[in-house]
Amino acid sequence: MQRIEGHGGELALAALRAYGVREMFTLSGGHVFPLYDAAHRNDFPIYDVRHEQSAVFAAEAVAKLQRRPGLAVLTAGPGVTNGISGLTSAYFNASPVLVLGGRAPAFRWGSGSLQEMDHLPLVAPVTKHAETVFSTDDIPRAVNAALTTALTPHRGPVFLDFPLETVFSVTDADLPAPPGIAPVEPDPDEVARAARLVAAAERPVIIAGSDVYAGDATAALREAAEALQVPVFTNGMGRGSLPPEHPLAFAKARRAALSGADVVVVVGTPLDFRLNFGDFGDAKVVHVVDAPSQRAGHVQPAAAPAGDLRLILSALADHPGDRVDHAGWIADLRAAEDAAKARDAEEMAAETDPIRPARVYGELRKVLARDAITIGDGGDFVSYAGRYLEPAQPGTWLDPGPYGCLGTGMGYAMGARVSHPDRQICVLMGDGAAGFSLMDVESLVRQKLPVVIVVGNNGIWGLEKHPMRAMYGYDVAADLQPELRYDQVVTALGGAGETVAKSADLGPALQRAFDAGVPYLVNVITDPADAYPRSSNLA
């Protein structure tokens, strides 16, 4: 164990670095100055934003993409409360984010210091661990314990705050070494039960979600699918686990698959609204999760192995018993997939004006590289992305996840650009979502972090306006300014952009955006009558 000396910020930074944390996202605040001082004097990059939620979303993007802790530093009171939506998204997405908060001084507690409030009751329900660290020499221990908790499956965010005198004081302290996080060993009997069900099924399907990527289990997923010859569908960061050209990779035949399957294997994603709450008719459900806490409580799966996903999937691949031939089932799904792709190709090539959202994605497919990071921040417009875009590699898709919080876009873009300086970063944003975070384009411009932003601008809250009108015959609070110039907002903030109203102009505009080298917004005027159904399985 190493002994170190310094103020609270220096002690925290030493513990953070031991876990591979390499950057800080923040919005300036006096309560956390020592953390900035430590970072500045140790060449530890600081990225600052215009709203604290963007700092937490940026940290979450790093955590998601790099499968390591992401760090946000927030000042006391409103700094922390402004970050709670980001913390909550990280909680639902199982992202190992650490938020370090400032806190009013403990020795004056109750006297009415600036921004004096107890954060823990607010953040505890949406974190795996929340703690106030009252002793300076306890900071390395607290950071070490919090990050270990964040990285232990089922992963998730953690929170620490430091009273003013704690983080400003100087002392010496022990720096504990990060403990190795042992894989969770699954029950071999439960794994064998799952393997027998899949091997004996005539029409099995695998649905793989975000934890497959987070648990570094994409290779094991492919191994299991190929060994058992099971078609694979994906959601969340599971997208790209099998490349689109893989013979077992499917995206368009989902309805045919889930209505015809006799066994559905759901791996690394909850049985929530995106999967009809685990109700697949007469099909038996095998729910594979990374920790016992993730087993569904509202359904009774036929098998529910819990543990390291790599171990479970590799065991499925190694199943020694007989296996049913699935060639006919795969051929049927491939026919449905090809037919759906043909329909989609027609829609993505539509020459209609006003522009249909499908055409936007048809043009994007032509310019996006295989390793591009695609970020969805929106409802109606981004729902189309889940249908028309097919990530070619794992770890290239970011969306808000099951919490569905808008405003992730600019924070995710910052975290993605920091994580992958040489890749295309493309944010897909509805005009409603643009209102949450577009000001943080200024943060991207100032810190020279170029990204492309494509706004689907239909002038409405599409997932609300059409359903409300269908239910009541009218709608309220569902209109935005039609044809608003979001590109001019980005230009005013130091970036660039343009508005596109005709289908034929889309391709050249997107190419200019990716060539620009600055934050560039393509503001696409889309048809407000063309709305995606609410039953979208985006995430």
From TrEMBL:
The lineage of its organism: Bacteria, Bacillati, Actinomycetota, Actinomycetes, Micromonosporales. Its EC number is 2.2.1.6. Its cofactor is thiamine diphosphate. This is Acetolactate synthase. Belongs to the TPP enzyme family. Keywords: Thiamine pyrophosphate, Transferase. Gene3D superfamilies: 3.40.50.970, TPP-binding domain (3.40.50.1220). GO terms for molecular function: acetolactate synthase activity; flavin adenine dinucleotide binding; magnesium ion binding; thiamine pyrophosphate binding. Residues 377-524 form the Thiamine pyrophosphate enzyme TPP-binding domain. It holds the Pfam family TPP_enzyme_M. Residues 8-120 form the Thiamine pyrophosphate enzyme N-terminal TPP-binding domain. NCBIfam families: PRK05858.1 (NF004516).
